Amino acid sequence: MALVDVKGVTKRFGGLTAVSDVDLTINAGEVHCLIGPNGAGKSTLFKLIVGLYPPTKGSIFFDSIDITDERPFARVQRGLSIKMQAPSVFKELPVRQNIQIALQARFSGAERDVEEERLLALLDLAPESGKLAGTLSHGQQQWLEIGMALALQPQLLLLDEPTAGMSPEETFKTGELIKSFNAEGMTILVVEHDMAFVRQIAQRVTVLHLGKIFARGGLETIIQDEKVAEIYLGKTHAH
Ligand code: ADP
Ligand code: MG
Question: In whole angstroms, how far apart are CA 235 and each of 6, 213, 231?
Fold first, then answer.
């Protein structure tokens, strides 16, 4: 069943068409990776799904409801949760308080305390809970922000380059975390550049190139597609 259905969506910035007539289905329960070279339109498509940009053309459905004209906040209430490309934790506040702020939307009282401890432990941030978020490593700040997105108990978790700036060990651990969320039934869309990471987590892959869908399919099909390797590795002009 399609949880998200993007139908014929185009986004223009002045004369530049960043996303061009894109159809994309994200099925309930899958980990879907959106890949493609720099400037392909991945983050723009991500922001269209989240509601940060209105599309120039086309429609977006969530759970069969047309959300094309809904504000981001209304989409979050429907069960979308987002982690943007640049980390946006409250750096001057302690780690624990960042989680508490995120939890306020869904929890209160003792239930909130339990969820707070669960998230801190899940993200290996319990030992850091008293530190100011701005003093954490870059990878830990990314995890904290993922934790804040999880605090909303989303049906659909959207992550834009969640492993940017992470060490290989941190990247692997992030992949295992994403798989564990998915094992509990969460649908996840990941915009990602790192192919090793895509191999670790993806079930289905959509490749964007120059704003258009270039290829889509199961992980193995996409990995073996030579045309994808060419555009993805920027080899188009190599031979
Ligand atoms: P990706 O995330 O795949 O690297 P983006 O979606 O960020 O690609 O960008 C796609 C294209 O749209 C690029 O050419 C980029 O310069 C342009 N673009 C993205 N956002 C804006 C914006 N807010 N205003 C104008 N051009 C933009
Ligand atoms: Mg991007």
Answer: 29, 18, 6
